[in-house]
Design a protein that fits this description.
Elements (H helix, E strand, L loop, with lengths): L3 H25 L20 E4 L24 H9 L16 H5 L14 E6 L3 E6 L4 E7 L14 E7 L2 E7 L19 E10 L2 E9 L8 E10 L10 H12 L9
Parallel strand pairs: 4-5
Antiparallel strand pairs: 1-2, 1-9, 2-3, 3-4, 5-6, 6-7, 7-8, 8-9
Length: 265
Amino acid sequence: MSNRPAKCFAFLLAMLLCASAVFSQTASRPEAAPSPKPLLPAGAPDLSGNWLIAPGKSSWDPSDEAGKNPDQMPMTPWARAKLKAARPPFGANETFENTNDPVQKYCDPPGLTRLYTYPWQFTVVQTPGAVYLLYEYFHIWRVVAMNQSHNPDADSTWLGDSVGKYEGDTLVIDTIGLNDKSWLDQVGHPHSDKLHTVERLRRVDHDTLQLELTVDDSKAYTKVLTSKRLFKWSSFPLGETMCSLSETQSFQKNIINRTNPSPKK
């Protein structure tokens, strides 16, 4: 019989060690010199800085952020069938045996919503014409065109077509044009190419950034979902965190498979 708990424990231990390293280095590193002030439009809130994503929240279900009850999301039959077929690395159905997680199996980009569930950092760079979001995980970057309309001819992509505006102390990012190749979160909830997201980023205080995410996908979910996350300011610079298929396969061979010996005949 497979030793699924041991495999999950090995992977979770590796993830926690990565997160712990970031936290410990952040705590022990002397405070960095202040960054140059961003070129903000008049009256725009300053959201600059490196923001640390806290581990432990794997689902966008506001009542089940750990993903222990993934079936309770208000899904359509299409989405429920997709969830049932998913073999995710976290949540109630976590497994690393024959995974079909597109990130774990192929090193595919995680997608817009799932990027916020990894325990790595991101930074916000503001200019008058665009806001750039740079994610440590995968070294992914997004461009948010400010005070513009969506491109009606944009192709569906991993990160979609994002436009933004400021509403008082909040940056509002509206995104459409996402493909359906990624998961909504770490527990395998799917989304379709009809997904429409709204991110509302607000600096609660100097050390705290709040994200309110609204998910509207009528093909996958029977109602609009809204969740909130808090991120902490970090003095630790962004590092290199890539998804390497060769390293993933090596981890599977040398760590995961060794915790799951074949049963004796």
